[in-house]
């Protein structure tokens, strides 16, 4: 019996084709910025959510206190910009606007992100 390596598992072409459909007419060099932005958004939202759940368990009512997050190097994610909110709207035509609004809201709440997300677009 021949060993089957993970480099040849048969679905690479389907994954690549799906990524191309999602990319649409956007140039690949621009698409990478979109994907990296989404990865960053998901990451900070997950970190925020972990801390949020911890604060809820403590029961002191500080789960919406920005200082509880920034003191630990965690970005504060406002309610409308949290991943659960974005994911709930993922299949709507306005998902691009939802993501842009989320990024702007996060940038507004976190001074160290000022002019980071949209400075390159100008």
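^ Assign residues to that structure.
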């Amino acid at each position: 019996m021949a060993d089957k390596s993970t480099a040849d598992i048969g679905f690479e072409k389907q994954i690549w084709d799906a990524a191309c459909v999602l990319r649409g007419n956007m140039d690949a060099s621009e698409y990478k910025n979109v994907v990296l932005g989404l990865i960053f958004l998901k990451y900070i939202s997950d970190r925020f959510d972990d801390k949020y759940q911890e604060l809820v368990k403590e029961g002191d009512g500080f789960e919406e206190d920005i200082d509880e997050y920034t003191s630990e190097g965690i970005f504060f994610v406002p309610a409308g910009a949290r991943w659960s909110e974005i994911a709930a709207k993922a299949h709507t035509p306005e998902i691009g606007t939802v993501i842009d609004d989320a990024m702007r809201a996060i940038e507004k709440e976190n001074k160290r992100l000022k002019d980071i997300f949209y400075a390159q677009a100008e």
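The CA atoms of residues 90 and 98 lie 9 Å apart.
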